[in-house]
Specification:
Blueprint lengths: L24 E2 L4 E14 L6 E14 L4 E10 L3 E11 L4 E9 L16 H4 L6 E11 L2 E11 L13 E2 L7 E17 L2 E16 L15 E14 L2 E12 L6 E6 L2 E6 L1 E17 L2 E14 L8 E12 L2 E11 L18 E12 L1
Antiparallel strand pairs: 1-2, 2-3, 2-20, 3-4, 4-5, 5-6, 6-7, 7-8, 8-10, 9-14, 10-11, 11-12, 12-13, 13-16, 14-15, 16-17, 17-18, 18-19, 19-20
Length: 373
């Protein structure tokens, strides 16, 4: 048994989807309670089912004491499922150092997100953006340097057969009978300022293990019965100038499978396949504009591009491009996104980096309106 499998954390019950700062109710000097309600309109060129519907209700609790203790939790109710987003407790040692234990964001790549849109980038759908797992996370941040070190014992539920979840994790299926069983993360980022320019330059490393699950109903008899090692690395750069922001990232990941070039992930109730090994490129640009249009005080418009480059039998590249604007109006925060996807999950494709026959471009319009309190 490797050292990655020795620790086991319970799935304990940070960030909202947007960078908009919510105004929680201050219960005491140390405790805040907040939440959000969102509705969503979606039109797709690949089906005839456009509709406006309830999307989410969420509850947030945040605690911070004068002696350095803190905690945060968020639970979400969607139309078809209810899930943990994050839940952790921690201690602030000093101005530079803190530690968290629980379900916390995996420190990898551009943070807090590798996108500006409601739709995120392709990295979200392959488990490398806004991912939350159960573990322990140490952070050092002083002057221009930030360092994150973390160990995650398992996904947020510790159960690969549970497909109802917010963040994308390895799924246990008959064709892909594996589950997450230990993961190490290290991330370093340096903040450099030059006149009106601000740069964040960093790198991330991830090493993990997947356990083979023998008791899966209908398991493929040719599936590899060995545990699997996983690796991912990324380099990122974010540049800010006045109201403009540029994000660039290169990522490589590899699930070391011997007899398959696909691995199953799941979130939002369904499992699907991605390429077991790929390179991922992200290039995003945005501009924030303060306006005085009645209740509307800010527009942030963006174009977020990401592509998953995969090669091999039954594989094909996936591309996602999101053009849109985020609108701030008091406690309301809304997104208007046009999503164009080529062979892309949640945009007409059956997975990410796989070829199941239809690898054409598809589009969808998504409008999300949220009240954050």
């Amino acid at each position: 048994m490797s050292f990655l499998k020795k620790a086991s954390l319970p799935a304990l019950l940070i960030i909202p989807l947007c960078s908009f700062q919510t105004q929680a109710v201050e219960v005491t000097d140390e405790l805040d309670i907040g939440g959000a309600v969102r509705v969503n309109y979606a039109w797709k060129d690949y089906d005839n089912n456009a509709k406006l519907e309830f999307e989410l209700f969420r509850a947030d609790v945040n605690y911070k004491s004068e002696d350095g203790l803190f905690a945060s939790a968020q639970y979400r109710w969607y139309q078809d499922m209810d899930v943990i987003h994050h839940a952790y407790m921690g201690y602030q040692f000093d101005d530079a150092q803190s530690i968290k234990v629980g379900v916390t964001q995996v420190p990898f790549g551009l943070l807090p997100y590798a996108a500006h849109s409601f739709w995120f980038g392709a990295t979200y759908y392959i488990g490398f953006e806004d991912d939350y797992d159960a573990g322990i996370h140490y952070q050092y941040q002083r002057d221009n340097l930030r360092v994150d070190l973390a160990y995650f014992a398992n996904d947020e539920y510790g159960k690969g057969t549970r497909f109802d979840r917010y963040s994308f994790d390895v799924a246990t299926t008959a064709q892909s009978p594996y589950e997450e069983a230990g993961q190490l993360n290290a991330r370093i980022e340096y903040d450099l300022k030059q006149g009106e320019f601000s740069h964040k330059i960093g790198g991330s490393f991830q090493y993990g293990q997947l356990d083979f699950v023998a008791n899966v109903s209908g398991r493929d008899p040719i599936a590899n019965t060995d545990d699997i090692n996983t690796f991912a690395g990324a380099a990122h750069w974010q540049a800010d100038w006045q109201k403009w922001q540029l994000q660039l990232q290169y990522l490589h990941y590899d699930y070391d499978l011997n007899n398959s070039n696909r691995i199953a992930l799941s979130a939002f109730s369904y499992p699907f396949d991605i390429a077991a090994q790929a390179d991922v490129v992200t290039a995003n640009i945005s501009k924030s504009m303060d306006v005085d249009w009645g209740p509307i005080s800010n527009l942030t418009c963006y174009n977020d591009y990401s592509t998953v480059i995969a090669s091999g039998d039954g594989l094909a590249d996936s591309v996602q491009n999101v053009t849109g604007c985020a609108v701030t109006a008091g406690k309301f925060y809304s997104y208007v996104d046009w999503i164009a996807g080529k062979n892309m999950y949640f945009a007409g494709g059956e997975g990410v980096g796989i070829d199941n026959g239809d690898t054409a471009w598809h589009s969808r319009l998504n409008i999300n309106i949220g009240w954050y309190f």
